[in-house]
Design a protein that fits this description.
Elements: H1 2-9, H2 13-16, H3 18-27, H4 36-52, H5 59-86, H6 94-122, H7 128-133, H8 140-145, H9 160-172, H10 174-189, H11 195-205, H12 210-235, H13 240-256, H14 258-262, H15 265-268, H16 273-300, H17 308-336, H18 347-357
């Protein structure tokens, strides 16, 4: 188990360094273009890596190829988000940004859910190597669509030195720092997760089967996709700060519903554990996805012009770092409360702490920039900046 965990941790290498891939794309155009060549090269290498997984002869060969496959996914993610951010930075209109990111994350969630479902079905009939090789299919649409992508030729290249200077200036922006702190509080300090303890609760206390836990995962994925749809169709015209405040409150409230099951009160209401878990997981992911998309839309409007890939990747990396902090906080709280597989007596305390801590980000909302219909409070300092050199 330890060896497997250590090996799989290598696959996060590409995702941790997302700002680096953004910086390379922004500063090193190929044939005068910053996005199309990197999209095509990453997709091509991704296809080769996944196909090669079927011929790996040792553990470290497999780990190396799998790491390259994830690296390509990370680069594709950076480039796709940078393309959307290019149309967003310097603008106060969130409509186009909402459509871009809603479409991106919606398709990403849908494709991931379908692939996992199909892969699980194929594993019953084919070897794992053969199923892994099918992962190359996810890159094929990118290879087909990239040549059709229209991109303006870069007339002046941004040097690495100039890019670091812009990043330093970018980080000094009070609006940028406010969003950094808010995202970190929302995803990390304010969101310790009790998934590990809840897993033991589901399997040992409620006796959920592996097949049903798979259904719970599907329910969460459906909730995520619907959350993206709801955000784009109903929430994208709302003012960003009030919406973030309301979604933060709703997110904490929905998460707190888990206490009903932990305390076994759902049985008093006549609600079966299976139904309760499916519905609760669905709504938890739905609200969390809306909150995340709103934060990404806000971040995209603050990206610095001409280094959109780097700056947006920096925002996303802060979010990823927050997730890591959430895991560490959860581990610490679990140890302090002496929660183990055989002792879940304090699980309700952990759940309560996790839910209430989600409100940590709420006091930070008034310090966020305004990107909606209140232009008087929105200064040029929070806009994307055009650079030269």
């Amino acid at each position: 188990m330890t060896t497997m965990t250590l090996c799989l941790n290598f696959t996060y290498f590409g995702w941790i360094l997302k700002p680096v891939w953004g910086a390379i794309s922004d500063s090193c155009p190929i044939c005068g273009q910053r996005r199309k060549p990197y999209l095509f090269l990453s997709a091509f290498i991704g296809v080769v890596a996944f196909v090669s997984l079927g011929f790996a002869g040792s553990l470290w060969q497999f780990v190396t190829l799998f790491t390259f496959a994830h690296l390509c996914m990370a680069i594709l993610s950076v480039i796709a988000q940078a393309l959307i951010a290019e149309c967003s930075c310097g603008s106060t209109d969130t409509d186009q940004t909402s459509f871009g990111f809603s479409s991106y994350f919606g398709m990403k969630q849908t494709a991931a859910s379908l692939f996992v479902y199909v892969a699980g079905w194929l594993l019953d009939q084919h070897l794992a190597r053969d199923v892994l090789q099918l992962g190359a299919i996810v890159y094929v649409p990118v290879l087909l669509v990239t040549p059709l992508l229209e991109e303006a030729t870069v007339l002046s290249q941004v040097s690495w030195k100039r890019q670091f200077e812009i990043l330093a200036e970018f980080s000094e922006n009070s609006n940028v720092r406010a969003v950094f702190v808010f995202v970190l509080a929302m995803q990390g300090v304010g969101s310790p997760i009790d998934s590990g303890a809840m897993f033991f609760f589901y399997t040992d206390k409620l006796n959920f089967t592996a097949k049903f836990l798979g259904a719970v995962t599907v329910s969460g994925n459906v909730g995520s996709v619907l959350g993206i749809v709801v955000y784009h169709t109903l929430l994208r015209h709302f003012q960003i700060r009030p919406m973030l405040a309301i979604l933060t409150l709703v997110n904490a409230t929905v998460a707190a519903v888990s206490l009903i099951q932990v305390l076994r009160l759902n049985l008093d209401f006549g609600v079966d554990d299976h139904i309760f878990t499916l519905v609760h997981t669905f709504f938890t992911r739905l609200v969390a996805e809306m909150l995340f998309i709103a934060a990404v839309v806000l971040s995209a409007h603050l990206c610095a012009k001409s280094i959109e890939g780097t700056t947006l990747a920096l925002f996303i990396s802060v979010s990823n770092f927050g997730h890591m902090q959430a895991g560490l906080s959860s581990a610490g709280l679990t140890a302090v409360l002496d929660i183990t597989r055989d002792n879940l007596d304090n699980l309700w305390v952990l759940s309560l702490l996790c839910c209430t801590s989600m409100l940590v980000a709420l006091p930070l909302v008034p310090f966020l920039p305004v990107l909606d219909s209140e232009p008087k409070d929105f200064t040029s300092a929070s806009r994307g900046r055009v650079i030269s050199g």
